[in-house]
Amino acid sequence: MFGLLKRTRRPTPVHPLEQRPRGADYRAERKPKSVVDCAPARTDGVFRQAIETGRTRLLITGAVMALAFMAVGSRVVEVSALADPHEPKSLTAVRAEKVDTERADIVDRNGELLATSLQTVALSANPRRLLDPQDAARKLASVLPELDENRLTETLSKDAGFVWVHRNLTPRQQHEINRLGVAGVDFHRRETRVYPQGPLLSHVLGYTDIDNKGLSGLEKSLEDRLLASDEPVALSIDLRMQHVLHDELSAAVEEFKAIGGAGVVLDVKTGEVAALVSLPDFDPNHPTATPADARFNRTTLGVYELGSTFKIFNTAMALDAGTVTLAGGYDASEPLRVARYAINDFHAENRWLSVPEIFIHSSNIGSAKMALEVGPAGQKDFMRRLGFLDRLDMELNEAGRPMYPRTWRPINTMTISFGHGLSVTPLHLANGVAAMLNDGVKLQPTLLKRTARPQGERVVSSAAAEAVAKLMRLNATHPDGSGGKADVPGYLVGGKTGTAEKVGASGGYARKALISSFVAAFPMTDPRYVVYVVLDEPKGNESTFGFATGGWVAAPTAGRIIERIAPIAGVQPQDPDAPEILRAMALTPPAGDQQRLASFTATMTAAIND
Amino acid sequence: MRAVLLVVWVLLLGATGATLFHITFEVEALESELTRLNNEIVEEQEAVHVLEAEWSYQNRPARLEQLSADWLPMLDRIHPGQVMTLDALPMRRATEENDGDDAPGAPAPPIGPAADADKRGAEALPASLRTSEGGT
What we know:
Radius of gyration of chain A: 43 Å
Structural class of chain B: mainly alpha
Oligomer: heterodimer
Radius of gyration of chain B: 36 Å
Mean pLDDT of chain B: 75
Helix content of chain A: 25-40%
Number of helices of chain A: 20
Distance between the termini of chain B: 105 Å
């Protein structure tokens, strides 16, 4: 190659007889050559110079081209023969961002983790590739003691290309299986839904199946949201209140040998569900380990006749309609007979009762008469406004549809006045009471954390709502009131008992099977939370003198719950006997000429002596 | 002259190639380092994720309550009388001993208002709530 660089080399003359192809390319080349040949000797130096220049240029171009081709060639060799034959490295090799999970986490209102997805390893086998199924089964069973060797042998002997051996391996088990060196088994990375709180939120969260698909609770109803983004879902639930409710309700269910229980703590001002428990419950980590009825949500799916707690609504309805005032009353001296039914009082007073007395003595007769004055149409309309005739529109799919009479006769009106004949879910009732205490404005209950106060719709007038709140407080403070056992000194508890007889197998009401409940709220001067406790078929014991009614079994539980959740809610204890509180809770404002404060006792005495 | 120019060009070309090679290798090394570090971060994040679940599991309210019952048996349920606001607490009285070593940010108040606060704190709750059974 470097021989070409010799500048002095002269071109060899072309033999005239030499045969050359007469192509277009050669014609151009031949021209200068013939010029050289024919040139006179005197101009030889000039021509030579020109030729030398041309040759040098040609040479440099050639060298550059040769280098370029060499580069291309070496690259071809490198790519085809030397380079890593695997997939090209992606530019964003691994994103060092947040852990990318299939389903988003669920946290409580304070950010405590309630449900998360963890990476686990599953073990599968390809029976067709196994050399000796029996040997493989023996080896695997030695590392995984929870697997039965004989059943594993059977599984591994199947004529299939793929079988699952184990769904969740610990890292140690994975390591040991690797060491066994069994050919034909594979590991798969997968996600497992984990509920660190165990059974505490079982009915709220629900559970997922083995393929991480939501099967119940929020896992099912929020499926799209959980899959769409990795941002955790914040619930309205306060884990601490949830624990208190769960703890106390479980204790009550156990103490009174109830077949089940339901409980809810509802924020009056925002409609957020702070705690929601249904017993018996289950561990969402192992949902199939408990009988199927444990997965039934009594709080939002079960509909029950909830008994006298309905008198809260009945009184509010009558006061709102203006058919009676707090000073008015009804004759409850003898049972009310309508057609073949007789309405009796459980705590019969057998005399004329004022509206507050009807409330605190829980008089069925008085309530029925109060409802009759409003009339079936008015009552049905009121119940519809309260949302008691429709399914609760909230996040859970487990929302029970209320049961109510198709034709709303006067007898229905009378029984519904004290909570029989209209079945709603416990959450319906808690939400209704919250509406009464939220100045008569009903809010949409939710299980998701709210940032803004929702727009509600008015159910009753402010005045009726205020009167009902005072009646609830009176029921807890008055010596004859049924809610005394729920009062916690300092937290100004108000409430109402409810004891309903369950419809027996024969269709009639069973006297011994009760739904005993208590709905409470605190502090009644400015209600923050409604606490509702329901016990399904509680049995009385010595401590309750054999009674299994709401006032005996559910009220103390509600009181204990309030005592424990009030500090969590940041509610300041107040002196229940402070004059301004007594004045705020007095049923009738002090008359202008009266100088003394109207206390409950004074009002009640006046009402009774009327 | 031309030969020198040519040699310079060739040398430059060679140098460029060598630099290119060097940079390429360096980039590759850095890329694999980045991948390694990112993998490490992801692994750590997964570990953190698992530990978060573990933390939540270990902090189940029921477990904390059990631990409290086991190790702090003197603490009972919070009695409403134990809940107070900061205003209701009496201020610390200034004395000669602790005048100098008072914590910064908590200046000793004058005697008069302190005594008032003391009285106010005691009066903030009625007798029925002033029981101290919960605190012992």
